[in-house]
Design brief:
The complex is a heterodimer of chains A (243) and B (257).
Chain A (H helix, E strand, L loop, with lengths): L2 H25 L18 H33 L5 H15 L2 H14 L5 H26 L3 H9 L4 H43 L12 H23 L4
Chain B lengths: L5 E12 L2 E12 L3 E5 L6 H7 L10 E9 L2 E2 L7 H7 E4 L10 H12 L7 H14 L3 H4 L12 H10 L8 E5 L7 H14 L4 E5 L3 H7 L2 E6 L2 E7 H6 L4 H7 L5
Parallel strand pairs in B: 3-8, 3-9, 6-7, 7-8
Antiparallel strand pairs in B: 1-2, 1-4, 4-5, 9-10
Helix pairs in contact in B: 6-7
Chain lengths: 243, 257
């Protein structure tokens, strides 16, 4: 299957799923948003939900992106693949990345939200970092490895230093792939947050308006953001072309 | 041959990739201002030897080198040797044309920019350098209106010539070529060979080739290698017509390889 086809089909599927959820929710006659932000029932309109989430997400997100890109560049460009440092870090990251994101979501909810006294920003950050970093580091590593060796050789043979090669060639080349990986990770995080909230709401709250499968508005906002993020990722992935 | 006429000299050069010995006691003298070709069957160490001369081999971990390599009389493993200066002096052209995926103009200037202090290259000076480099490789007429084009979108022949052109602003003394024509068609091969012959007086060329006809056409001296050892190094015509070593004879008379 051609890549463009694949992208089109996945976007179509996701859109269909979201449309179904939206339709289902509205058809039950439920107001668009109830149960407010994540676990806080005081915020009740969708704009505030969005704003609240973005306010929390953006600083964490920027920090996480910079951190993961830096780690990936350190691993790929500054460490030999056979060195013990590379082996240890890369293996740990691989293990973390292979754990299903649901486990992180439950861990985050249970441990960070209910069992500790940390501030909300900090708990969000910790969960987010655990969930997102391994994935973004790995996708950035793959993006860096994807830069054709001939480009590096050409630059090195002209006397370029490592920083020239990274700044002028590897980074610009790998940029869209790196961003695609980051958006995938964000999309995954948002989707898993939505799932956790649904479970939480279903188990902790008595059904409102007689609907046992009530979906809170924050979930819809999260799913929409998740969809947007995957679409962005697909576009960025498609943009990466090797000449 | 005069000693001062030699641009590359090695003494008992051995190289290992991990446990595998890729070069065994290679001692060679490459004359200045001429084209010397390195021939031999695949895996005989030609490319490895070539890559020793600008120390690009070192980028791959696990490489051990023993012996001495002198470029223009200076041992390149001396602690005071700057790798950047070495690579400026010894340019390299690769098997597959590998222009950087930036514009033609920026390709030519990339090397110079990283070796010059920031802001020291004026626009007028840059334009002049680009024109000069492209003219030397006979590309100026074709590309003068395409300077902003991405170099990777050019024809392969133009790309390979551009790869040669981008070395010239750095004023190298030696140009190493690793099968520079293997990705080109007959016309492209001819064009690159002609270019080498024109530039030969100014630069020393060391070229790895699988194409024996090409070695005969372009080079004045020829080195035959086999399983990591240097078997024979003579004038090209003599090596092909009256090889001294039976292994060379087998190879050049196509009984082997």
């Amino acid at each position: 299957m051609k890549r463009s086809e694949l992208i089109f089909q996945s976007i179509a599927l996701i859109t269909l799923a979201v449309a179904f959820i939206l339709f289902w929710n509205f058809s039950k006659g439920v107001s668009f948003v109830e149960n407010g932000t994540l676990f806080d029932a005081t915020v009740t309109d969708s704009y505030s939900v969005l704003q609240e989430n973005l306010n929390r997400m953006i600083p964490i997100l920027l920090g996480a992106i910079l951190f993961s890109v830096a780690i990936a560049f350190y691993l790929e460009e500054y460490l030999a693949r056979t060195s013990w440092k590379y082996q240890i870090i890369a293996r740990q990251i691989a293990i973390l990345a292979s754990i299903p994101s649901l486990l992180y979501g439950i861990l985050g909810t249970y441990f960070f939200v209910f069992k500790t006294e940390f501030g909300s920003f900090f708990t969000h950050a910790l969960t987010f970092v655990l969930l997102v970093l391994p994935i973004t580091i790995q996708s950035t590593q793959r993006a860096i490895r994807g830069v054709d060796i001939s480009v590096r050789e050409a630059a090195y043979a002209l006397g370029a230093k490592r920083r020239h090669v990274i700044v002028h060639h590897v980074f610009p080349h790998a940029f869209s792939t790196i961003m695609a990986g980051i958006f995938i990770a964000i999309s995954r995080t948002l989707a898993i947050s939505a799932l956790i909230i649904v479970v939480y709401v279903w188990t902790e709250h008595t059904p409102q308006s007689g609907d046992p499968f009530h979906i809170p508005g924050s979930v819809i906002v999260l799913l929409l953001l998740s969809l947007l993020s995957s679409v962005l990722s697909s576009f960025l992935e498609a943009k990466t072309n090797w000449s | 041959m005069e000693t001062n006429n030699r641009s590359i000299e090695t003494q008992n050069l051995s190289l290992w990739y991990g446990d595998f010995q890729a070069l065994i006691d290679v001692s060679v003298n490459v004359p200045a201002g001429k084209i010397t070709s390195l021939i031999g069957p695949s895996g005989c160490g030609k490319t490895t030897l070539l890559r020793c001369f600008n120390r690009v081999n070192e980028r791959y971990g696990n490489v051990t080198t023993k012996g001495e390599i002198k470029i223009l009389g200076k041992n390149i493993y001396d602690p005071d040797v700057s790798l950047l200066e070495l690579r400026k002096t010894v340019g390299m052209v690769f098997q597959r044309p590998n222009p950087l995926p930036i514009s033609v103009y920026d390709n030519i200037l990339f090397g110079l920019r990283i070796h010059s202090p920031f802001g020291s290259l004026t626009r007028a000076k840059s334009d002049e350098i680009v024109e000069e480099a492209l003219t030397s490789v006979f590309l100026w007429d074709d590309l003068k209106d395409k300077l902003k084009t991405r170099a990777t979108s050019l024809q392969l022949e133009q790309q390979q010539k551009l790869c040669i052109a981008r070395l010239l602003p750095l004023k190298p003394q030696i140009i190493l070529m690793d099968e520079p024509c293997s990705a080109l068609d007959a016309k492209g091969t001819l064009a690159v060979e002609e270019l080498m012959s024109v530039l030969a007086g100014t630069y020393t060329f060391l070229i790895v080739t699988h194409n024996m006809a090409q070695a005969r056409r372009v080079s004045s001296e020829c080195i035959y290698m086999f399983l990591g050892e240097l078997i024979e190094h003579r004038e090209t015509q003599a090596l092909f017509e009256t090889p001294e070593h039976p292994k060379t004879a087998d190879y050049v008379q196509m009984r082997y390889g």
